[in-house]
Automatic annotation (TrEMBL):
Protein name, entry field: TSEN15 tRNA splicing endonuclease subunit
Keyword tRNA processing: yes
Domain tRNA-splicing endonuclease subunit Sen15: 47-136
SUPFAM superfamilies (UniProt xref): tRNA-intron endonuclease catalytic domain-like
GO CC aspect terms: nucleus
GO molecular function terms listed in the Swiss-Prot or TrEMBL record: nucleic acid binding
Gene name of this polypeptide: tsen15
Positions of the UniProt region annotated as Disordered: 135-155
Compositional bias segments (type: Basic residues): 146-155
Family matches, as Gene3D superfamilies: 3.40.1350.10
Pfam families: Sen15 (PF09631)
Key words, A-Z: tRNA processing
Family statement: Belongs to the SEN15 family.
Length: 155
């Protein structure tokens, strides 16, 4: 092997992250500076931020404070050119009132509620003002009513 293509163990081994890397992350520090007074909700917002920005590849994800509700909200675009969506990260142990939901919906953006469990798993639920017809399940086609009826057996 030539000097240019030779790899050593030092090139392959990555340095481990420090145990408190979350506290040093610029977005976590930004979320803490929003001063909402609930470190569990800020931690939940950071986990949702990582999921949206790193895993789901959302664009322009940022944190905003909602002083009236004392919450951190996230804003972002699912894809380039799509409208901004509001995401409400919520630890599983924290309650949510109708007033809180209406206050976030009043901002005008589509809203996702993201519940963060103690094991860091995330569950997203789309919220809207009023009733929303759900999307049909993937892979199911309408076959018409007649095909689903059973014929009565004649005795």
């Amino acid at each position: 092997m030539s000097e240019l293509t030779k790899k050593t163990d030092e090139d392959v081994i990555e340095k481990p992250l420090p145990p408190n890397w979350i506290l040093q992350h610029p977005m976590y520090q930004h979320l803490m500076n929003l001063d909402v007074g609930d470190s569990a909700q800020v931690h939940a917002a950071f986990l949702v931020y990582l999921d949206l920005a790193e895993v789901r590849q959302w664009k322009e994800v940022s944190g905003v404070g909602c002083s009236e509700l004392r919450l951190v909200l996230l804003e972002g675009r699912e894809k380039e050119g799509e409208p901004t969506q509001m995401v409400l990260p919520l630890p599983v142990h924290r309650g949510l009132s109708h007033r809180s939901v209406r206050s976030v919906l009043a901002r005008g953006s589509p809203m996702l509620l993201c519940v963060v469990a103690s094991d860091s798993s995330l569950v997203y639920q789309r919220m809207c003002d009023g009733l929303l017809t759900p999307d049909p399940p993937v892979g199911i086609q309408d076959q018409g009513r007649r095909q689903h009826r059973k014929r009565r057996q004649q005795h």
